[in-house]
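Internal ticket - ligand job 434, zinc ion:
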Amino acid sequence: MDVALYEGETLNITAEISRYSDAEKDRMIDKYRKAAEKKAMICPFCHEELRLRAGEINEIHFAHLKGKSCQGAEAYDTYHNQTKRENKKHSVIKEIIYNELKGQELIRPDLKVEYGYKEKAEEKWKHYPDIYLNKNGREFAVSVITNVHEIGDEKIVKTINKRNKYFKEKGLESIWFVEDRELADDFEHRVLHLWEAEYGLAIKTEEDYKWDKLLKELSEEFPGYNITRLFGYRAHGTMNQDVRSLYYVHSIGDEITFSVYRLILDQMQSPFRGFALTEGYRMNISQALIVRDEILLSDKEREDRNRLEFANQVLFQIEALKAEAALRRQANEVRYEEQARDKYFASTVQESLAEVAVTYMTVDIDIVEYVSKLKYLSLSPQEAESLFYYLKVHRSELEDYGLTLTEVKKWVRYALGKINDSKIREWLVEIEAL
Ligand SMILES: [Zn+2]
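stdout (structure tokens):
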């Protein structure tokens, strides 16, 4: 092990010796060796005395007497070997995350935060997460990963898969933070380009399950449409509708921020990639690392907005496809008819396509306000129409606002009893039929 307690402080001997020139190194090693012989070097874990070893073959290190060791030191060495492949930013980022979470431990009695190798030393694990987190009995393995591509993708893929499997067997859920230099997104093509290793780093959080639900609803509402294809994404093959998220960490000095990307992983073949559901967005550390039932890792309002926007985009694409098909059909029908009629059809379809676009782009409404407009009978015909399209697509989100469809329908029936405007009534009747 490369650390010892010396004069009340942790001394990292590798770092210490590297400060000196080659000529001075031997003298310094000798100095610390003598100090160790006089029992000045103490194991930080078991508090037994340590000796300094600096052979030709082995790297300079501290050892317990006569080949003895202790659980703490063994776990430290295992973890130390495991993180050798990481770059310098790894420990900086890890410490910032640890401190942030540790700070919350004070105010949350059901939260426990500890370095992985310290928490599980007694159990002699083969791999340790950087940080161990226990929230009310639910355990998480939090790990920071850097140099994702450097050791050759294949080797690191195996390492990550092995760790994911190991932590899962131990009952822990894995959370990975990936160093940002690996990020390669192209939202215009709705693509995230990935290293093979990043497949294993994509995790499943509460927000991802909400996205799954939305995709399922859209697929049920519009069977026969392939959602990724609607966005022009060229898939390798069939993709499972299994939304996952990747968390990148950006560090400048001792400040870090996170960004979240939601995606559906494409089939695992080169070039590795995924369908980007949304454009990634950034969060600062206090936003990202709030622990509730799990680490939040997202901006809830932003996610709701993103889902609404995504659903609108899907609707818009489908309507555009339908209108295009109608245009083609009509163009065929009129091929044998008069030129004037051809023009007439084309222009009316263009007009209705424009109308459809307007309808679906304005479906983002303040539902609570609209319901109160219903109660006070102050809804305009356009608002009645927007309300219908909103409920058609987002009825499952009503509970987020403390509402139910039944309740909204109750007010719709009430309004139908009082409003005479035929345009408004038309839409209200539509809502009743939902
Ligand atoms: Zn010890």
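Auto-summary: DSSP finds 16 helices and 15 strands in the chain. The mean pLDDT is 88.
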